[in-house]
Amino acid sequence: MSNTPKQYQHRNWYTLHRQQASEYARKFRLEHPEIVHARKKRYDAINQDKTKKYRLMYLSLWPERRKEQKRISKENLRRSIFNIIGSKCAKCGFADIRALQFDHINGDGYLDRKSGLVEKSLVIYKNNPELAKKKLQTLCANCNQIKKHMKNETGRH
Ligand SMILES: [Zn+2]
User: Fold this and answer.
1) Number of folded domains in the chain?
2) 70 domain residue, yes or no
3) Is residue 118 a part of any domain in this protein?
4) Alpha carbon of 23 to ligand 1 centroid (Å)
5) Is residue 103 helix, strand or coil?
6) Which residues contact 133 (CB under 8 A, 6 or more apart)?
7) What is the pLDDT of residues 84-142, one digit of tens each?
8) Which domain holds residue 26?
9) How far is ligand 1, taken at its centre, from the CA of residue 100, in Å?
10) Neighbours of 140 (CB within 10 A)
């Protein structure tokens, strides 16, 4: 298909002003993340097979990146839940996020573990802050371990 004069003009302008155009695009992305997100979503919906293919290709080419992505998304999920329920141990006030854990206030965490949905349930809590506040509290590893001993809970968080 040959280009219409207008398309040609546009392309020509773009070639001459590449830097300006990419700067403008970058600014636009920063100022309108919701529009960019909606466009990407629409593109992905139309080109489902294509994006899936590329995604799988990408992941199989760089398995370590996949691992890294998984680690980052897990960490982000953890952080966003701490943002909801607080990033300080409810018992002793310890505040180093590396040794903080989620504790099911009523000790019903085994329900989530039993259904094998630990990570999925965290996503549910993230999307339902009220539920998360009702069900979860932040405990440091020590206080969590002590609580487990006292309540004789089984399994691990
Ligand atoms: Zn503690």
Assistant:
1) 2
2) no
3) yes
4) 48
5) strand
6) 84, 85
7) 999 999 999 999 999 999 998 887 766 666 665 667 788 999 999 999 999 999 999 99
8) 1-61
9) 8
10) 22
